[in-house]
Amino acid sequence: MPIIINLDVMLAKRKMQSKELAEKIGISNVNLSVLKTGKAKGVRFDTLEAICKALECQPGDILEYKEE
């Protein structure tokens, strides 16, 4: 898939664990894990907004496009 999810990178930069982020944004650890591994088919804008707010970043810090 040409869309790369860099959520692990942002979590490391913010010194935050996945569990803490999941609690802050109100989703399950399992759903966050699916998103982190790139297995999600999509992401809701409200979820993306919550992630960006919690990590103090922009959507482009999390999502990246690479041609196959």
From TrEMBL:
PROSITE patterns given for it? Answer: HTH_CROC1
Instruction: Tell me which residues make up the HTH cro/C1-type domain.
Output: 13-62
* Coiled coil region boundaries: none
Q: What would be one Pfam family of this protein?
A: HTH_26
Superkingdom? Bacteria
**Official protein name in the record:** Transcriptional regulator
**Organism source for this protein?**
Epilithonimonas pallida
